[in-house]
Structures are given as C-alpha cells and as structure tokens.
Amino acid sequence: MEMTLRWYGAAHDTVTLQQIRQIPGVTGVITTLYDTAPGEVWSRERIRAMKEEVESAGLHVSGIESVNVHESIKTGAQERETYIQHYCKTLEHLGREDIHLVCYNFMPVFDWTRTELARMRPDGSTVLAYTQEAVDRLDPDRMFASIADDMNGTVMPGWEPERMERVRELFAMYRGIDDEALFVNLKYFLERIMPVCDAYDINMAIHPDDPAWSVFGLPRIIINKENILRMIRMVDNPHNGVTFCSGSYGTNLKNDLPDMIRALKGRIHFAHVRNLKFNSPTDFEEAAHVSNDGNFDMYEIMKALYEIGFHGPIRPDHGRMIWGEKAMPGYGLYDRALGAVYLNGLWEAIEKNDKRSAG
C-alpha cells in the first residue's frame, strides 16, 4: 500500500507539492492535466513535464485521476469512435511515460453531486454535504450558479463553468439512455481500450457514482456490489478494475463496505478512504477520517484491504475545512494530512497484529 494525496497541478491547486512532501508517510501524488478537455489527447511532452515537476519535489506520480471520458462515449453517439481513439492514444502516452494507473468514471453529466459545499459542523469545520430533499427542489440548469459562491475562488473538479453552461445540452444527450444502455456503452468502451491497457500495463480503476443512486433521473450504474461485479465479469481482464471509494459506495447505507472489498480481491487498483456522517439515509456530510466522527468503521475497511493483499495507491479523500484554511472546498489540506497519518497508523497496526498472530 502506498499513501498518496490528490494534487490538481500548480496552476489549479491551492496546495503545493512542498506541503504534500511534508506529510509523514505520503510518497506520491494522484494528479491530472486539469486543463485538458474530455476527449483531448494528452501529449507525451505535457505528461513528462508533469512528472518532472512532481519528481523535483521528492514525490512521484502514482496514478492519474482522471482521464475524463467524453459524453459521446457514455451515450454511444456516432462520434464516440474518434474519442475512443483519442483515449487510447492518451493511455499509450501515459504508459510510455511509465504511468500505469488511471482512475476514471462513467457518471452522466455530473462527476458527483453535493447540495452544500460548506455545511457547518458542530466543531466549527465546514464540509461537503448532500440532502435528497434539496436535490428534489433544485433546477439542474441553475445548479452551478447556486453553489459557485462557495468555491473560495477555485473550480471544483467536475463543476467547471464551461461544462455547467452546457447542462441542458448534456441532459438532452441522455434521453433514452437507461442503466442497461449505459452498461452496454461502458462494455463497448472497455473492450476497445483493453488491448492498449494490456500493451502498456495500464490499470483502469472505475470510480463509483456519487451518490450511489439516480440523481435528476440520470442513470447511475457503479453503485453496489452486484453492479460492480457485473462490470468486471462483462470485460474479464485484470486491467479492468475499480477505485474503491468508501465514501461513494458508502452513500448507500445498504452497501457493506468490507464485504464489497473482499468480493473485489485482485481488482481494486486504487482506494479512496473517507468517512461520512449520516443525519438520515439521504442526508449525509463529510466527516473526519477517524471512525468515531462518522458512520464507518475505518479499521474494518483498512483491514479488508490488507486481507485481500491490496498493494496499490490509497489516499485520504475530501477533507473538512479546518483552522481557517481557505482552499478548494471539501479538499482541505490539513484534514487530509491528518487523515493520511491516521490511515497509515491503522495499516501499521493491522500489519503488526497479523504478524503477531502468525508468530
């Protein structure tokens, strides 16, 4: 297991590589070329420059999150062939630059949905939060404008202004697309890219939908154990795997997170570990990573990852805004740093207990 932190690049992140380098136990970053559009080919030159920047800070690129999938691929539109070819070329360039992990998602329109970016918690921290009641009252066309004032002058991943200006057009693209059609289009995409993944040893790690149910009537399929196993079996290749995000799968309290981890042995290429606090089954907020601040048993989640022999990158996910920090909402540096140290401590304790039992 390698502890990492997400980093959006010097031009887009309020956190610096030098700050990440000072977090005990963090050795790599999960990054991206944030200013590339879905469907655009990433050049080897830009990938190499990104690697060199990270390495000059004493870290390395542990993986990419995300190489975004164009909506034409998700909807099965006629022009998807062009965008799949572009995607394959990007994967080739990443492989040639010795980067072998790509976290991506297949969520229609919105990468994730929250109704608040700065809900105040009892301890004075602010967090991302979601209530179904608020979504039911919300006009998707005005969604970006309704939360833009909470962004501290930054841009949230998946909520770029140019994308939100096209919300009406994007919704129209999904007319007639249900869960089954989305599964068919995902299968087509995976079958087309797997030969490139095999050639360059690229592990594709699909991120679950967040929250784990339909929002605004859009289809969502990467939501539970049954669906993720279906995805793996329909394209049965070791490079076709998952990002296990405890916070995304955990939005549905029916999902047994340790059980899901054990069912996915050998196919979890990347892990996001975070905690949620539920006020009702459809009203939740981000919590500190420690178990007693939310609803998840973080020890059992980490233990399940250890027991299946997980050895990929892991990162603390999201992060409360604490100590007066002004940063990208929901991605506070201080809380993620605390989370990284806590998760590393859990892993070390589990490892010691295992060795003690074996001895």
Structural class of the secondary elements? alpha/beta
Binned, the helix content reads: 25-40%
- Count of alpha and pi helical runs: 14
Rounded Rg: 19 Å
Topology pattern, helix = H, strand = E: EHEHEHHEEEHHHHHEHEHHEEEHEH
Number of strands: 12
| CATH-defined topology | TIM Barrel
Shape: globular
Average pLDDT figure: 92
Give the total of domains.
1
Notes on the structure:
By secondary structure, this protein is of the alpha/beta class. The chain has one domain: Alpha-Beta Barrel (TIM Barrel). It is 39% helix and 18% strand. It contains 14 helices and 12 strands. A hairpin with a 2-residue loop joins strand 10 and strand 11. It is globular and about 55 Å long. It starts with a strand and ends with a helix. About 1% of the residues have low confidence.
Which short descriptors sum up this protein?
single chain; 359 residues; alpha/beta; TIM Barrel; four-stranded antiparallel beta sheet; 39% helix; globular
In short:
The two termini are 22 Å apart.
